[in-house]
Design goal:
alpha+beta, 7 helices
Length: about 180
């Protein structure tokens, strides 16, 4: 189920209110173009409200979260991904939530700040077992019809570590020299 980034509604504007929305030369209209870009990214992306409710998500995010929960109206992040902390109380209200990087980063973004690549360890329930996953959390604020929302991306640090390990030493040396 799509909420915010459907072909009918993009960030508070209907397709008829978007300038040039009839169609771009050689491409789909603006709402369709944004939807294609949103879906094309292989990184999990969630559009969040100030209460950690999920307003929209891409296909990569749907793989991380439970699809049945995502179909609910603005489910909490912890509920959707089966965060172990959210089992004892609702997401944001459990004892460990005060230190949650995702919760705090979304709150920073709703207050107007960008959060870039903060490390977060998620403890998720998967088929009865607790699984720990490490992510880089990036959150950016944007306005939608007067409401500040947060665009949350999660980069899997285990995938990044495997990629770095697969590089040959010469490539790593060139990369280190270029970034210092």
């Amino acid at each position: 189920m799509r909420f915010l980034l459907s072909s009918r509604h993009v960030f508070g504007m209907t397709s008829s209110s978007l300038p040039g929305s009839s169609s771009l030369p050689g491409s789909a209209g603006i709402p369709e173009f944004h939807e294609v870009v949103f879906e094309a990214l292989p990184t999990p992306i969630f559009v969040m409200d100030s209460g950690l409710g999920i307003i929209d998500f891409n296909s990569a995010a749907a793989e991380l979260a439970e699809s049945a929960v995502l179909k609910a109206f603005r489910p909490s992040f912890g509920e959707a991904v089966h965060c172990v902390e959210a089992e004892s109380a609702s997401c944001g209200n459990a004892p460990g939530c005060h230190a949650c990087v995702i919760r705090n980063s979304v709150r920073e973004a709703v207050d107007g700040a960008q959060v870039c690549r903060k490390s977060a360890r998620l403890r998720l329930r998967r088929e009865g077992a607790i699984v720990e996953t490490d992510h880089l959390v990036t959150v950016a604020p944007f306005l939608d019809g007067g409401e500040t929302l947060a665009l949350l991306t999660l980069d899997d640090m285990n995938e990044l570590a495997a990629l770095i390990a697969s590089l040959n030493p010469a490539t790593l040396t060139r990369f280190a020299a270029a970034t210092s």
